[in-house]
Amino acid sequence: MSRMRRRQSDGSIQLTPMIDVMTVLLAVFMVTTPMMTTGIDLELPRAGASAMTGNDHAIQISVDSNGRYFLSKTELSRDEIVTRAIAMRGENPNLTIMISGDTHADYGAVMSMMGKLKDAGFQKVGLRTQPE
After folding, report:
1. Does 103 have pLDDT greater than 60?
2. What residue ranges define each of the domains in the chain, with the CATH number in brackets?
């Protein structure tokens, strides 16, 4: 009679490949996270030490010194930005919007954007500043 040989399998988990994968993922996230800052280069107005600096999960709207509006890095009209923000609110009803206005931007352009967003029903609209 022939006997069947049974192989005993090793039931232990090999941690080395898992640690290698996690190390690579950590390195990728550490390198890409600083690059995720969106928006255009602005000179933000200075405010007190307790100023709002922005929420990472907020929509970032920028107004440059020439009064042009940007959603992230894309130049759009004021009405187009409001339309896109309304569409984004459908996915997240507690959406926060941060407006970054350049120090030399027209006050009316910044407040016009804020007013349009308030008229569209947004409650969480803030102005982003740079702490002193």
Report:
1. yes
2. 39-131 (3.30.420.270)
